[in-house]
Structure to design on (624 residues):
């Protein structure tokens, strides 16, 4: 609706978007594999997980939903589902995927906030859009699969997305160049999520 | 937002829409009946299942949500809930409803794709919109009821919607008349779903 | 998209909106507290529960999502989460919260319908928007937490929202002043929900 204030923004960061979509689509298909599902369900989970977060973001900020006017995005998700179906999921699952997912999380959180700012969204909601973009697809994947959501585990996951989005928005407000803000945000988010994977860092739960 | 490119399109297929709404509303109310719910919950489930898929489709393609500017659609869902409440649900449940649901699935998948194409959506997303329109209401119904979703069963359900939507979009791209594409798509989807009901056809699950 | 027909409407009732957001945000954080979650999850649940219903309403009626162009709404939810985190949740949980929630329910149902009518939505969908605004955030909260939803309990909850929204829309159609319609609707909804809390009123479940 409102034209993007800084359109080059989104163009420049589009690679982060495709990377995030692929990684999340693969993680969706892997959940289908763990549940011994059919190929159709593989594709459904790959699509929902791959595009879910960005879809909600675009609906909320009043942008055209990013995958509706192109064939490429959904085809990418379908290919990801086929790849997981055809090669043993054991090769993809486990720690390698965790690290790709960490990279996707950081990329997507940064990109989501950047896209929101480019549509004139206020800073706090723009920060929230980054977190949503990175986490919502995985949350829907877990709800549909009947799994306990990443939300309910103490692991640093949403927190890493919040760090990436928060640094990006904060540095942008302070006048940093987009590329600097994006690099710092994404690297910090990736680092924090990486520490959670490598060292089991987690947040303390609530004690009454 | 963008005006429909082929408005007569939606008008011509509107009967498929009302048929799909009624069948899905009844299936929603039947889930409430199985769970021994109250009349208010009957209505809630009838509405969510009846309009859920089309609502998500309209939000995604940037169309005005189809039931917001008319009273008829919600009243239709409320009547469906009352009908299920007043007559024994045993008469409605079982195989008769399965066959109505199959017809609703085929009708809705075709209509959903047609509406998406009429809003200038690209072919692959238009195909996805057909599948979503047919399946999303039932998925939300199952998540809200705490039931395992149709998504997670090997039965041909999403696949039948995909066949209907895929044939419709494919034939439209090849230049077939709308009515021919819609008839072929809906009949093929209904046939495949019917075979799943009558003969227990299902897709193979993933083997690692 | 369509400009509000009666903009003063929303302005006048905005206090109901903030009250509803706070109460629901607190109820979201309390669910996180019961599940011994982290502070990040507290905030996530506070935001989803606080703004969930109004977000869906705004998407459906084609209004700009109410919290996207201001920082205040999300900050209010974050503060609510911090308050629950910092003070013992035992002081907030229990009957006091139930009564605040009842007030939030009545306020939000009335406000949701008023906002829908002000965007030119037809009466039956405007009534549905009131119910959705009041109930949807709590439903998403329960689904994410893996709890049985308020929907599935016989308690008068959705029904009280329906009474508030229905009276408001009905009296508005009959030409009553906005303030009268809002006061009657909100008080009736609060009264019915209060009776459910105080006396355990509930609806009969379905018997086959």
């Amino acid at each position: 609706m409102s034209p993007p204030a800084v359109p080059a923004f989104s163009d420049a960061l589009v690679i982060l978007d495709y990377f995030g979509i692929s990684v999340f689509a693969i993680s969706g298909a892997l959940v289908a594999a763990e549940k011994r599902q059919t190929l159709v369900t593989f594709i459904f989970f790959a699509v929902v997980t791959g595009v879910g977060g960005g879809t909600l973001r675009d609906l909320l900020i009043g942008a055209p939903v990013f995958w509706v006017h192109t064939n490429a995005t959904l085809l990418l998700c379908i290919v990801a589902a086929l790849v997981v179906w055809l090669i043993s999921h054991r090769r993809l699952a486990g720690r390698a995927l965790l690290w790709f997912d960490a990279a996707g999380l950081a990329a997507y959180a940064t990109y989501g906030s950047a896209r929101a700012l480019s549509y004139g969204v206020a800073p706090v909601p723009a920060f929230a859009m980054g977190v949503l973009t990175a986490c919502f697809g995985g949350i829907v994947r877990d709800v549909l699969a009947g799994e306990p959501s990443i939300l309910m585990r103490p692991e640093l996951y949403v927190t890493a997305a919040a760090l990436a989005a928060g640094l990006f928005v904060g540095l942008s407000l302070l006048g940093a160049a987009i590329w600097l803000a994006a690099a710092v945000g994404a690297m910090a988010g990736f680092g924090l999520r990486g520490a959670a994977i490598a060292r089991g860092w987690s947040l303390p739960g609530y004690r009454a």
Q: What stands out?
A: The two ends of chain B are 46 Å apart (CA to CA). Chain B has a mean pLDDT of 87. Chain B is about 75% helix and 0% strand. Residues 26 and 96 of chain B are 12 Å apart (CA to CA).
